[in-house]
User: Fold this.
Amino acid sequence: MEKRAGFVALIGEPNAGKSTLLNRMVGAKVSIVTHKVQTTRARIRGVALEGEAQIVFVDTPGLFRPRRRLDRAMVAAAWGGASDADIVVLLVEAQRGVTDGVEAILQQLAEIGTGRTVALAINKIDRVQSGALLALSKELNDRFAFAETFMISAEKGHGVDDLRRWLAGSLPEGPWLYPEDQIADLPLRMIAAEMTREKLTLRLHQELPYQLTVETEAWEEREDGSARINQVVYVAREGHKGILLGRKGETIKNVGQAARTELENFLGRRVHLFLTVKVRPNWLEEAERYSEMGLEFRDGNA
Assistant:
């Protein structure tokens, strides 16, 4: 078999299961998965091997109606990832069906999808009856000429192998784009920051998770093989700092322990993680913060 390689963009509404699918395809956790919407901010590439094919997945932010600069930059990143990819996979939640958000994505696909390979993956199929699945599949395929349709459960793995094999066979022939043992092209510093942000998102509630960001300020490789990692959590208001720290610092301590454990499992070695919380009222308007998240600041312009 000839070697194949290419980029596959996963698009869909927030919480459609893109990050869960990416992590299952790659076989490791490279994208944060939480119960909250809009948690993926940057285009995260995960690399999977299937036979002689190397599939480079682009996990894009969920597509939604943007309100703030950060929202606009995230949506621009999502469509940018789709436009640059060899194959686009639209994920639709089975039980939600054709929502207003899916309608908007279908309209955009009509503009950028012409002449490119776009597949449909109906996710969370274990939550609806087979008759409803067939009706949803017909409705979506009547709206857009998908190259193939897959019924999957990204969480449980149903149908995922079939999707991966089809993707592998549909990529263009050519040399692999990354070393065989590489699973993501994000710098470790950003992966570490995303892991900590996931723990914060799971721990905190309401709007606060979208008002904070995490940056890896320093990474020191130590002689004993461990790593010392210093991270800063930026929040927009003084009141948020108190919520993050918690009573007697318990909240940030628990978050730090959970993030450290996951980092140690990911890296396969000891990690010394130190978190600092800083108030930056206008971090959502600072170009430097967007660079750290892998987003384009100018994309946030109205």
Summary: Residues 4-170 form a domain with the Rossmann fold fold (CATH 3.40.50.300). DSSP finds nine helices and nine strands in the chain. The first helix runs from residue 18 to 26.
